[in-house]
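Quick one, T. Sequence first:
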Amino acid sequence: MIFIPADAPSVPVLVNGGTVNICSGATATFTIQNPVANVTYRWYDAANGGTLLQSGTMASYTTGALTSSLNVYVEAVVGGTCTSAGRATARAEVGGIPVVPIVTAAAGTICPDSSVAITATSTQAGTTFNWYTAATGGTPIFTGPVFTTPALTAATTYYVAASNASGCMSATRTPVTINVYAVLPAPTVSIASRTATSVTFSWNAIAGALGYRVSTDGGATFTQPSSGLTGTTHTVSGLQPNQTVTLQVMAVGASECQNSAWFQGGGSTDNPAGNLVFVPNAFTPNNDGTNDILYVYGTTIRQMEFRVYNQWGQLVFESKDRGRGWDGTMSGRKQPAGRRLQLRAPRNPARRYSRK
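C-alpha cells:
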C-alpha cells in the first residue's frame, strides 16, 4: 500500500497536453497549467528516477536544441518531501526539415507587360509553398503551389520555400528568374551592288537575331532574304533599267515582341551606257526564283518582237509582249545553252539587237 499524505500536491497538468511540435534544431518549452504558489516543480528525463533536469518554482522548462523527438517528466513537491503521486509526461515532437522545392516556369522569358505562371513541387506530401521577393527574410507575397507573376517589364527573380505541417521551413529558398525580351535594334540597309535589272541590298548583322524578313511593299507582305533566313543580303531582280526599288528589313527574334522595327533602304538599277533597251546576255532557267526567265527590258519600248532560234534556224520562242519572256523551253522541253536571240523594234527598223 502506498501512503499519500492529505496535503500531497496534485500531479502537474501541462498546457496542450504536454505536447509541443518543433522543427529540427529548435528548442521546446513546456508550461504547467495553473501553477501553484510555493510548489517546486522537478523535471526529469525518465518516468521514475532518472536525471534531474531542472528544479524550482518556475512553471516552465525549455530544452536544448533538438534534432529528434524527446520525452521529459515533471512532478510537484511541497515542503521538500511531499511529492505528487506521479509525474506528468511532456513530449517534444520534432518535425523534419522540408526538402527544397523544385520550381518550373511556363516560360523563362516573356514579352514586356506579360505575366507567367510558376509552379513549385515537392517529393514530400502535405507541403505548403510560400513565395517571396528575397532570398531571406520578408513576408510571403503568395502561398500556394502555382504563383502567377504580375505584368513584368524587366527581369525579376522570385523565391519559394517549402513548409510542413509542423511549420518547419526548407533550409533554403529556390530562386527562379523570369527574363523579359528586349526589342532588337533595326538593321541598317545599304546598296551592295546593282545591275541594269537588279539591286542587291545588304545590312549589318544584329546580335541575338534568329533571322531576317525583307519586304518591297512597305511591310504588307514579307519573305526571307534571297541569301537565306540568316543571310544579310537580298537581291531584287526582274527590274527595268533606272527603276527604283525600296527594301525594308526586320531583325527577327525568338518572339514577335522581340522583332525590330522595319528599316528602309532604297536604290535604283543601272542604266547601262545610256541604252534604253536592255537584253541580258545570259539567264539561268533552273527554277531557283532568280533570273529564270529571259525578258527584254526598256523604259521607252512601245512595240517589240522578241524571237529565239536554235542553231538550225528553227524558231524556238516568239513574243510581242514585253511582260512575256522565254523560260528556256521549246514545246515544254528544256533546250541546251547557246541559242541565238533576235530582238526587233518595229518602230525603229534600223535599230536591231542580237545576243549570243
